[in-house]
Amino acid sequence: MTRRAVIEGAGHYLPDRIVPNSEFEKTLDTTDEWIRTRSGIERRRFAAEGQTTSDLALRAARAALEQAGLVPEDIDGVIVATSTPDLTFPSVATMVQKDLGMTHGFGFDVQAVCAGFIYALTTANALILTGQANRLLVIGAETFSRIMDWTDRSTCVLFGDGAGALILGAQDGEGSNADRGILSSDLNSDGRYRDMLYVDGGVSSTGTAGKLRMQGNPLFRQAVEKLTSTAETALAKIGLSGPDVDWIVPHQANIRIIQGTAKKMGLPMDRVIVTVQDHGNTSAASIPLAMSVGVAEGRIKPGDLVLSEAIGGGLAWGAVVMRW
Ligand code: UT7
Is 156 a catalytic site residue? Predict the structure, then answer.
């Protein structure tokens, strides 16, 4: 028997305020048509004033618990992937832990920008496989609207706010690819690319939160190549390849990156969960948001082979293969 970290529930939360592309036409030299054709984004959500990343994370966590039919007492720990925490410290995870009424277990944040949820899932899987925990809440939550330069049309039209959560629980499998749960993962980073996507402030440099800066076009070219390679590596580790996948749930940065990666892997777009049109790029929240939407719409079902991949600042990138 092989211990596996199995997905027991998924949930998400989106702030109420929907911002269509047309809203940017009022203040920037941009058009709905440019944003839609270059990125696939039609609208995004922005958190209300005073609504923080931990508020979004908490609501996603509650939704995942409800979907799983579990209560906070059933959870051993909380991992939050985020680059936009409420405060420099303590972690968003400990805030969620407290707001869920948990006085047991542990919580910590993972920061790998848009690849954060892949890193968090891989960490949670390791904690479960080594017996450190039996059941974990793994959340991706962001308020990227707080680090936008609203005068920079090349970035501020692309990002949004939101949160998604999965519950991973230990179950016994046979040790084969037929098992439910996380089957493999692949993590990468290369700090030489740091100028391609970064925030120009921080605690020990400027003492400010800073604003997001991105070289979109060079990053676009890196993204398709690196996402395809990490996805194929994660699949190859367990003797699988593109056609074995039922669903790709990619990081939702740009529809053209999503299409390019699916094409290179030989998968048609009707096997890809796409939410970028409604959410924009929500960084570490984008994958769990898309997973939760895919489940709620009845597309992702127990037993499906799901591949997730993401790339972001660092550069950091990676992929996870799981049987739902
Ligand atoms: O989540 C982390 C990972 N993120 C990504 O992977 C994002 C990767 N990059 C992208 O998604 C795309 O590169 C963008 C959507 C950011 C841009 O698309 P692009 O096809 O690479 O366009 P570009 O950067 O080459 O810009 C084309 C033109 C430029 O004008 P010139 O120099 O050709 O005259 C830009 O100034 O589009 C201009 N432009 C805009 N025009 C209207 C840039 N932003 C805008 C805008 N509205 N909002």
Answer: no
